[in-house]
Amino acid sequence: MRAKLGFLACVLAVTALPAGAHDLTLSECIEGSDFIMHAAQARDYGLSRDDFLGRMEHDIQAIKAFPPALRWFVQDQDDEALLVGYARLVFDDPKAPDSHQSDFLQACSERVVENPSATDEVAALYEYLKQ
Question: Which residue of 56, 87, 104, 116 has the smallest Cβ count within 10 Å?
Answer without folding.
Answer: 116
